[in-house]
Amino acid sequence: MEKIKVGVLGATGSVGQRFIQLLENHPFFTVTHLAASEKSAGKTYGEVMKSRWKISSDIPAYAKDIVITLPKPTDTKGVQLVFSGLDSSIAGEVETEYAESGVIVISNSKNHRMDPHVPLMSAEVNSEHLEVLKSQKTSGKIITNSNCTIMGVTISLKPLHDKYGIESVMLFSMQAISGAGYPGVPTMDILGNVVPYISGEEDKAEIEPQKCLGTVENGQIKSASFAISAHCNRVPVFDGHTVCVSVKFKKKPSKEDILKTWKEFSGEPQKLDLPLAPKQPIVYREEADRPQPRLDLDTGRGMATVVGRLREDSILDWKWVVLSHNTIRGAAGAALLNAELLYKKGLISS
Amino acid sequence: MEKIKVGVLGATGSVGQRFIQLLENHPFFTVTHLAASEKSAGKTYGEVMKSRWKISSDIPAYAKDIVITLPKPTDTKGVQLVFSGLDSSIAGEVETEYAESGVIVISNSKNHRMDPHVPLMSAEVNSEHLEVLKSQKTSGKIITNSNCTIMGVTISLKPLHDKYGIESVMLFSMQAISGAGYPGVPTMDILGNVVPYISGEEDKAEIEPQKCLGTVENGQIKSASFAISAHCNRVPVFDGHTVCVSVKFKKKPSKEDILKTWKEFSGEPQKLDLPLAPKQPIVYREEADRPQPRLDLDTGRGMATVVGRLREDSILDWKWVVLSHNTIRGAAGAALLNAELLYKKGLISS
Amino acid sequence: MEKIKVGVLGATGSVGQRFIQLLENHPFFTVTHLAASEKSAGKTYGEVMKSRWKISSDIPAYAKDIVITLPKPTDTKGVQLVFSGLDSSIAGEVETEYAESGVIVISNSKNHRMDPHVPLMSAEVNSEHLEVLKSQKTSGKIITNSNCTIMGVTISLKPLHDKYGIESVMLFSMQAISGAGYPGVPTMDILGNVVPYISGEEDKAEIEPQKCLGTVENGQIKSASFAISAHCNRVPVFDGHTVCVSVKFKKKPSKEDILKTWKEFSGEPQKLDLPLAPKQPIVYREEADRPQPRLDLDTGRGMATVVGRLREDSILDWKWVVLSHNTIRGAAGAALLNAELLYKKGLISS
Amino acid sequence: MEKIKVGVLGATGSVGQRFIQLLENHPFFTVTHLAASEKSAGKTYGEVMKSRWKISSDIPAYAKDIVITLPKPTDTKGVQLVFSGLDSSIAGEVETEYAESGVIVISNSKNHRMDPHVPLMSAEVNSEHLEVLKSQKTSGKIITNSNCTIMGVTISLKPLHDKYGIESVMLFSMQAISGAGYPGVPTMDILGNVVPYISGEEDKAEIEPQKCLGTVENGQIKSASFAISAHCNRVPVFDGHTVCVSVKFKKKPSKEDILKTWKEFSGEPQKLDLPLAPKQPIVYREEADRPQPRLDLDTGRGMATVVGRLREDSILDWKWVVLSHNTIRGAAGAALLNAELLYKKGLISS
């Protein structure tokens, strides 16, 4: 069976690099189109990235000789789907252009996330939101994934919300520096330090989970109606966002209820055995001091959500700690899993 | 006027070192007694500490020639007050022994903190709790200070509690490694990592602020009755605990109310112009990304509480960020300020 | 073909953990014997290591149920070879006891390293030193590998020494904290800091390379006769020792000579296609700022030596930078490669 | 006595900030002129620096209301001396313009450093080089200080060179991130990592010490003639460059000779009791593991050179470790000390 030709927009950035890495030898997709800004356009990916590749394995051989173009749908020669890691300053328009030209856009950017016609999708959580694609007026379609900070949190909430109803969530993040891209955070700001602020992050964290856990009504997504309060912090960790959450439920479950619910949770990616799907979407660690980025980040090849420290909360109902890999599960990996789901469900026409 | 002779118990540990440093050239106190474990007893402080002194200024000259003894009150030759940085495994008994022998014990250890006859004191917050000293049956008296994590939080709550009444507090800490003493946290556990757990810390954080903000009734301290939920985390920061708090009030103040209350807050240490008292106990930073350990830790020579990011909370009422220096304001400095207060109030008899 | 039964001495320590990890599903060896101190003896490995396992993948399933014994050869039931990661305070005697009982000891400890009858072996460098095993008087034999700091340095020198003769070597190391084991370096000593001293390290670095590059004469190993001066430093890096070297040759090669020599270098592990052998023992990076621990550590699954920045030295002849993985290539991996070599050469009798 | 009016060029950068801080309440100088690029010109320093001030004490009050201008000498209203922390892309021309307009330029930039008519001065080392100022043709004069990396090294060599003659020096640096300015090093490049390369640094390190230790001949400075080989590395340390050196002497001194020479070393800044002069220019630490940035950086308020680990070198003669504060002694502090020397010697006319 022939592979689908795909492209990566924003191929030179941090998320773009992860796309390039995760797409190496992919069973469904073959990368033929790499787009970036004017500085890089016209050069090969290998040439441009020689001193900018920041992942600890080498640049995949397949990508090195691809000549980078500008992010324009005119030039894509048979590409049916693009992954977008574009900067939000241009992602909105560029992604729309690709969609208008018939290309499916799997975007990690924030621009279209809150559009009620666009799924804000985490494949295990809300694949049924794909239904709203029909309501998009372009021939290509746009699917987004959520902000990295709340990705794991939302996964840990999903099966509990279904059974017990979430009423409110306090969340407190300790976010890795890779989340800010490259060059990103200056070392003078974060070495031996924490910064209790990330521009725009709390705003996203307080509205995106409700959309992910929302319902489709009249061809649009309607967000769930619980409240979230977020404190977002930057810490000197390379990869891996750790989030402490306190949650109030409509109907308070027991500890055993929660652990059992997490253990049994499984979504479409697991049913369809998607290449990037973690076997166990939520992994609970029993140790008192877990999860930790250093020890748990690679669980499920960076695609699992690792949870620990479930205990009663003296104000809300329960509290726990969530870890997820911000550039894999929280960004490029989540997007690729969404694309794999579309492929397996036959939603990428050829 | 002659200085009061004082001792330091646990003089070789992290908190002990801070005591030694802060007591250099102190106008009220002169150190004549240093006590530590058998390994160190009989040797001079300079000899023992040569490779164990971990503060970036040198060992104060005055301390170098003092011969360390075991922590026994029999040997103190005129010492009227001791500062205790003893390990909690022995602090309880040893401190009681000193108190029984007529010595005032200013303790940073947790053992006596929750005794209703013992002030859990932060000099700006609850100096009126000294009243319960009368109910202690020993000739010497024991005064404790709170855990480092909630020190700054409690100070930031104090004037608001007085005016508006605290109803509940969610707190999320990012705590420095110096809080674990030396050798303390192994580098393999925390370099480029966060650990979402500190043994015993959340328990203390959920009960100590209420005692600090409590009232004296029938010669005992009765804790205030609000609830606290704490998430305590270790981060790779050297000194300085950063705490995010969300607070619900009995009567919700406006933003201006809160800022004005903090600005005007002042306690007995300021009125009595105590040597270690910060001019401004609570310093509010207007910048979006403050307070930060690296930039704000030394505010008020490490004795001020630095607050920032006051904003509405979508679940409780208000949220903000608190920073305080864990080994100065949160430990040795708080204890010394308590001792200075006792001195100025004439509570150290000679 | 049946696998050889092997043991790991010092199984709970840092090097022991790496042995356990690298031996998972090994084609030649099966672990049946795990030895550690009294604290652990009698318990299963899984039980003991629950909170002490410090590698980011989980404890291999095979090891979890093995009951730990004391390091005594009496109890080994058919084990023909042991890997030793024992502390040097006991490694000398214990390893001799195992050897006397007929077991081959592959040791990472320093105790027997400088014995002229014991190979100090890096499989690509000096496999011909195995000849001296005959001169060992025990029925089992002891083979050691060098200190982690000079492992990569020695590999980078080997083919140049053969062709051009080393006359002198200045080396400056920046060593990872994992080299000190666990709990090892206290965070207060190294966070945001460097320590220009590692106990005993310079002494080893100044004599071990000469033995590795020595010759067999009269059944003993005679060290090569060049001089080394070492400056050893600890830096806040998790894994990976980076070493700057300046080298004077007997006959000065050209830059092209050196690069070609490194590129063509290959040893017995490559010829015999040993499971753990890196395809390319020495990998040269052309980029101006490489090698770096974060980007290059996993080259050849942590078994390759990564070299960069070859340039003329204004005092000696040439200078360059060497990186090797201190707990894989510099310790457990080097030892396992030595064992694989023995196996393939038929030196493990059964 | 009236203070001299001075300016700071490049006032918003890292070195500029240090100048502003060190000049607060200075007994000789009063800052009236702050210059920076177009982005800042026309605004007050306080306004511009609100979120860019990176030193842990607050912006000095005196500087906040000064309106920043472009770096042009036309607008300086009575300024007799400027401190330059300008970027090297413009420092050359701008500094010359100021000198031509009659202003003394104390520069931390590299542009004029190797001009034989310009002192490359470290006040304790080579104040006699001021003699060449006469040969500068401008009415104002330019005095530079050396690169931060070799500042402390050169001080440690100075008195030994005078007595025993330096023949060659190998140096290996571990340099703090603040040396790269702000935003400077991206965190993704250095967190838990080392980078064995700093652009242009080794070139400077291999020629500047010889000029500092050179002699005045025919009104020009002639560099000393020994060779240096440098390996320069970036490490995750905030402030403080640590340098390992191995040195060969013309006439080999004993260990006692060296220690005595360092202890007795003193220069003009000490004789003239300059405000910023460290009492002891070279401080030797006896402990096995010192100097370290964290513990020794503030020695002499960041103006002393801290040395340790003196031991024999098996290839050259002696080796040791040098630490100096890169943004104080290695940059702004060194420049200010040079200015203080000029003032006291009456070389700033008014």
Short recap of the structure:
Chains A, B, C, D: Belongs to the aspartate-semialdehyde dehydrogenase family. Chains A, B, C, D: The active site is at residues 148, 241. The structure is a homotetramer of 350-residue chains. The first copy, chain A, has 350 residues and is of the alpha/beta class.
Task: Please give a structural write-up.
- Chains A, B, C, D: Residues 5-133 form the Semialdehyde dehydrogenase NAD-binding domain.
- Chains A, B, C, D: InterPro entries: ASADH-related, Asp-semialdehyde_DH_CS, Asp_semi-ald_DH_pep-lack, Asp_semialdehyde_DH, NAD(P)-bd_dom_sf, Semialdehyde_DH_NAD-bd, Semialdhyde_DH_dimer_dom.
- The first copy, chain A, is globular.
- Chain A has a six-stranded mixed beta sheet with strand order 9-6-10-13-12-11. In chain A, strands 2-1-3-4-5 form a five-stranded parallel beta sheet, with helices on both faces.
- The first copy, chain A, starts with a strand and ends in a 6-residue tail after the last helix.
- The longest helix of chain A is centred in the middle third of the chain and has 17 residues, at 148-164.
- The first copy, chain A, is α/β, with parallel strands linked by helices.
- In chain A, a hairpin with a 5-residue loop joins strand 12 (305-312) and strand 13 (318-324).
- In chain A, 29% of the residues lie in helices and 22% in strands.
- Chain A has helices at 14-22, 45-49, 61-64, 88-100, 123-126, 148-164, 187-190, 201-205, 208-212, 255-264, 268-271, 293-296, 328-344, and strands spanning 4-9, 29-35, 81-84, 104-107, 142-144, 166-175, 215-217, 220-222, 227-234, 241-249, 282-285, 305-312, 318-324.
- Chain A folds into two domains: 4-147 and 332-344, Rossmann fold (3-Layer(aba) Sandwich), CATH 3.40.50.720; 149-325, Dihydrodipicolinate Reductase, domain 2.
- The relative contact order of chain A is 0.15.
- Chain A binds chain B through residues 168-170, 172, 174, 192-197, 199, 206, 227-229, 231, 233, 235-238, 242, 244, 246, 288-294, 308-309, 313-316, 319, 321, and chain B through 168-170, 172, 174, 192-197, 199, 206, 227-229, 231, 233, 235-238, 242, 244, 246, 288-294, 308-309, 313-316, 319, 321.
